[in-house]
Design brief:
This protein is mainly alpha-helical. The chain contains nine helices and no strands.
Length: 187
């Protein structure tokens, strides 16, 4: 059920048939006057709970990618409790990176802004996952590194890059991936 102030399509965005029904009955896919804390861009919510098919559907209906759409897809893939559950979430990450060409190093806030619970680049969202996840986000981090993600970019507070965040969160599996990664030389 939708929470107070939340649009119905946000509550059902993990069900393609329900999203189709809502769209066929006039549901909007963007809410420019909505409180971004209560109703972030729909594509960000779908990146967390939906599928590539649902994301494509709302994009076809005029939805725009939110600043943290890739961040949320990475977070969803990294926090999956099993490899089987991670599959559809990794498909979203791949779709955003390979097909839509979303900036793999995009900060989650505009330059100069600082917000709580904003970790920085999409890769940073793979790090603070709970114990018991499939591999603590290591597979997602490895994929992002292979596709050009830069682990040296610091968060909006200027405190932690992915190396520091992984160390702070004691994420051993991500730290292992980072140890084997050779950062590209600065030009």
């Amino acid at each position: 059920a939708a929470q107070d102030g939340q649009y119905l399509i946000y509550a059902i965005c993990n069900s393609e048939p329900l999203v189709r029904w809502c769209l066929s009955h006039g549901a909007r896919v963007s809410y420019p006057d909505a409180d971004p804390n209560l109703n972030p861009p729909l594509t960000e919510v779908i990146a967390t709970r939906g599928t590539v098919a649902i994301l494509k559907l709302v994009l076809e209906h005029g939805a725009e990618l939110g600043r943290r759409t890739l961040h949320r897809a990475v977070e969803g893939a990294a926090s999956s409790s099993s490899l089987e559950r991670r599959g559809p979430k990794m498909e979203l990450v791949r779709f955003l990176v390979e097909e839509l060409k979303v900036d793999i190093n995009l900060m989650d806030v505009p330059d100069g802004e600082q917000r709580p619970n904003h970790w920085g680049t999409p890769m940073a969202y793979a790090v603070p996952v709970r114990q018991g996840t499939a591999d603590q986000g290591a597979t997602v981090v490895e994929y992002l590194l292979k596709n050009g993600a830069d682990p040296r970019i610091k968060d909006c507070w200027g405190m932690f890059d992915v190396y520091g965040l992984a160390e702070r969160m004691k994420n051993e599996k991500v730290m292992e991936v980072l140890r084997h990664f050779e950062a590209p030389k600065a030009t």
